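call fold(seq) -> C-alpha cells
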Amino acid sequence: MREPWIIGVSGASGTPYARAVLTALLEAGESVDLIVSRAARLTLMDETGATIRDAHWKDDVSGWLGRDLGDLAYWPAGDLAAGPSSGSYPARGMAVVPASTAACAGISIGLSKDLLQRAAEVNLKERRRTVVVPRETPVTRSHLEHLIALHDAGAVVLPASPGFYGSGARATAQQLIDFVAGKVLDALGVEHTLFRRWTGELGGGR
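ret:
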C-alpha cells in the first residue's frame, strides 16, 4: 500500500524550504503527496517566477523542482474531497513548509479552510507525524498561542531557523535552506545528508 508523506506549501515566504524538502524526499525514494495553497502560488511566483496550475501540475512542479517527479501526486488545494481529507487515506505523516500564520491558526482551531488545513488536521487526529514550519518573525501573542495549540495537539513546531555550525558564518543561502530542510526530515524520520551534524568538536563540521 502506498503511504506518502504529505507536503503542504502555504503562503508564507520561504518556498525554497519547500523545494528542498520535496527534493530530498524524492531523492530518498519516498512517496509524496503535494498540496499548494492559493496564497502559496502567489508567493512561489514572486520568489521564483514558477507557476503551478492544477491542469498542468506535472510540468509546472517538475520545472519548479528541476527534476523528474518520481512518486509524487498532486492534490488541488480546493479539493476538499481529495484523499488526504480523510483519516482512512493512508499516509505516513505531513509537513507544512513554510507555514503561514493563517495556516497555523486554521490548523490549530480545525478551520479546514482548504485541503492543506484539512489534511494537517487529519494527520493530527490520526496521531501521525506532523511538522509545522513557521517562518514569520516577529510573532504576535495570537501566533504564539496557535503554535502552542499545535504543539499540544502533537505537532512538531519547527521554525525556519538555520544553524551555522555545519557551514560557518560564510554559509551560502542554499546551505542554510538545506539545514532547515534537513531538520524537517529529521522530524519525519527520513535519512538525509543535507547538512553536517554536530560532532562535539568545535569546527568539526568544516
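The beta strands are 5-9, 32-36, 72-76, 93-99, 129-134, 156-157.
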